[in-house]
Fold this sequence. Notes:
5-stranded mixed beta barrel, 5-stranded antiparallel beta sheet, single chain, SH3 type barrels, alpha+beta
Amino acid sequence: MSRNKAPNPAHFRPLLRPSPPYIEHMDSPAPQLLSRASTALALTLLSALAAAQGGAQGVSHGASQGAAPGAPAAVGLQAQVEGLLHQQPLPQGSDAAARNRTPWRVEVALGQLDPRLKLAPCDKVKAYVPDGTALWGRARVGLRCEQGPVRWNVYWPVTVKVWGQALVAAVPLRPGNIVNQADVVLAEVDLAASGSPALVQANEIVGRTVVKAVSAGQSLRQDDVKSRRWFAAGDPVRLTVRGPGFQVGSEAVALGHGDEGRCTRVRTEAGRVLCAQPVGDRLVEVTL
Length: 288
């Protein structure tokens, strides 16, 4: 017991923080030739390192699992979107634009995928335009993984700007104002900037009542003025059916009021009911 009460010596020496090494000068080592076995091992390690780096970066068709699409993957997906857009027909000028000899100028700007998006690796990605999507204004292009461990589908946002001649307000217009000829001028505007069609001819707006405030220089849209009623329900109307390379006219009876910009149901002489667009005084059109 007496030996247990004796002071115990320290088991470890105090740790001293070593000072950082200081190298004043070091000569470059002379190159040495590797043996055949060492050379083979070095080549094997280099090949494995290159393969690992290639797998980490991902292929051009998708992002690696559990990671947001980085630069290599995003570039590959963007290239597919651009390739699809180049194959799509560009918006064409209307008949009025053709008469005025002012062809439309189309600009396409690509957005970006959500950086938080995580995509699994994919061997085959297909770009497509979703059904019912018009490449006009704000739109989107689909990207679908067709061959891979996980099937995914994402949408790449795009903006299609269509520049053409249309009417703009020469002076500020307030609700209730009657538009005069001097109140509007022609200028180049983005026709696809709004879902409401741009007005391109003065007879489409002169004499009509403004329902929304319009600043000077702002494009005039169909929703900015009060709709015209071309006929009432029960009135006889002239129906024109247009299609690729043909045009057919017949008589019909309106089943509803013919308000500009709204589809109106009409009954033909054969008893068929169609949805037609009012385009003038007791005039409707159907485009196939």
